[in-house]
Amino acid sequence: MHVESIFRMPMFAQNRTMSTPARVLAVCLGNICRSPMAEGLLRHHIQTKGLRIKVDSAGTNGYHNGEAPDPRAQAEMRRHGMEIGAQESRQIQKSDFERFDLILVMDSSNRRDILALAGDREEWRSKVHMFLDEGDVPDPYFGGNSGFVKVHDLLNEAAASWTDKWRGS
Length: 169
Fold this sequence. Notes:
The chain has a single domain, classed as Response regulator (Rossmann fold, 3-Layer(aba) Sandwich). Helices cover 46% and strands 11% of the residues. It has 8 helices and 4 strands. A 4-stranded parallel β-sheet has the order 2-1-3-4, sandwiched between helices. α3 links the parallel β1 and β2. The longest helix has 24 residues. The radius of gyration is 15 Å and the shape is globular. The relative contact order is 0.23.
């Protein structure tokens, strides 16, 4: 990485050292707010940068299995020209550790749950990373529309940084 690019990248992208993944999974609690937005934003940045990476999302619980993303998440993404309404919530499974090269979690609670699911299989545990290097992506579910705006902005910046890193690999 060139010194000048370090100064242009947000803090959460500076420490990425992994190669370009073929399949990425974004994970939050219920898979109806943050991770569907992250999936949509990663897909957008992957497409605009000409990368070939498959993206999916899941939740640590199955409470919303089969549901579309929260209407507020859909509205915020639509406001930016992205449609995520066809996504269906699902719970992460152990088989996802085999299917995906990288698992990006939204907060420390999600990370703890996913690492517990991975058990002591280091090859699985090494795939789990925070979406942001610095802190958690806040859960907007119980708040108003402004929470979805903030989450979109955080996820968009992070997705751009992840994909810039992958493009440079």
